[in-house]
Design goal:
four-stranded mixed β-sheet, two-stranded antiparallel sheet, globular
Length: 150
């Protein structure tokens, strides 16, 4: 992590990322609070990781803009992944590639944004139903990705 600073009362930093093989992870209730909003994206990353990842203690995801446990598992499975829904999280069996497919945003901005990343990373891409919900938190998200919605 580079350029650590406090912004808006929260610690932030730039992250230097280098390509490497991803491996399965295990997250529990003590890990979740600091990353609850990022959990759909973390689950997607696990779908590409080698091995079986387990995320538990994230029951709060059930009461977000959508039931993010249900909608994240559906997103991963719809694009060729292997995600089992748990009462408080997921079991995700990683694959080297995901084929792509269609995703419903459920009008949840985090699901739509995770879906966009998922489809870009997939082999064939696909469609996201109702992607305009991203405007609630990141109005120019698709433009920043270089994706033209219309």
């Amino acid at each position: 992590m580079l350029n650590r600073r406090v912004s808006g009362g929260e610690e932030t930093a730039d992250i230097l990322v280098e390509k490497s093989a991803m491996r399965a992870i295990e997250l529990t209730a003590e890990d979740i609070p600091a990353m609850i909003d990022e959990m759909p994206l973390v689950a997607l990353l696990c779908a590409f990781a080698e091995g079986e990842s387990r995320i538990t203690g994230a029951k709060e995801l059930r009461v977000k803009e959508s039931d993010r446990i249900k909608t994240t598992a559906e997103l991963i499975n719809n694009i060729g992944g292997d995600c089992e829904e748990l009462p408080d999280g997921f079991v995700i069996r990683g694959k080297k590639t995901l084929t792509g497919g269609n995703i419903d945003s459920y009008l949840d901005h985090r699901i739509a944004m995770t879906g966009a990343v998922a489809l870009i990373a997939s082999e064939k891409g696909g469609c996201i139903a109702r992607p305009e919900c991203c405007a609630i938190s990141f109005p120019d998200f698709f433009a920043k990705l270089g994706v033209n919605l219309y």
